[in-house]
Amino acid sequence: MHLPFSLWHAYSVFLVILTGFTAFSKDTQIEHAGLATRIVAIIALIFLAFTSVGYAFHSAKGDIAGAAVIAWELLAIYVNQTHPKVIHWVAFAAFIVSLLAIVKALFYTVRSRSLVEDDGERAPLIAGSD
After folding, report:
1. Taking the complete model, does pTM exceed 0.85, yes or no?
2. Is the preceding peptide bond at 4 cis, omega within 30 degrees of 0?
3. Burial 57-84 (b: 16+ CB within 10 A, else e)
4. pLDDT score of 88 more than 80
């Protein structure tokens, strides 16, 4: 039940940033992005990376699907952004940070589930007969 809303919310966060660049930046077919646009783009990419990390560690289980959506979008920016190169490589670094957060969240989720299953205090009070 939670998965579709998680995917939608993460994609919406990305679309808000993308729409801002589309609405307020210059047409890159006519002239290249200026220094201010590059700085704002780098800040936006860093914001998306931290948002992905925030999704991954949102709760005890984490919102790994939302973090994966943002990581996938950062990878798409890395693949499709060829000029300027600085945005290309910052997108790649942001993708790596997001991916590491997802892997760490998955590790802790799997580890915590295995610890809960072995814990005798959380065993059912009434055992069913086999």
Report:
1. no
2. no
3. eeeeebbbbbbbbbbbbbbebbeebeee
4. yes
Q: DSSP character for 113?
A: H
Q: What is the pLDDT of residues 47-65, one digit of tens each?
A: 999 999 999 988 777 789 9
Residue (of 44, 32, 54, 42) closest to 102 by Cα position = 54
Q: What is the DSSP letter of 99?
A: H
Q: How many CA atoms lie within 13 A of 117 on its CB side?
A: 6
Cis upstream peptide for 84 (omega within 30°): yes
Residues 116 and 130: their CA atoms lie apart, in Å, by 23
Which DSSP state fits 45? H
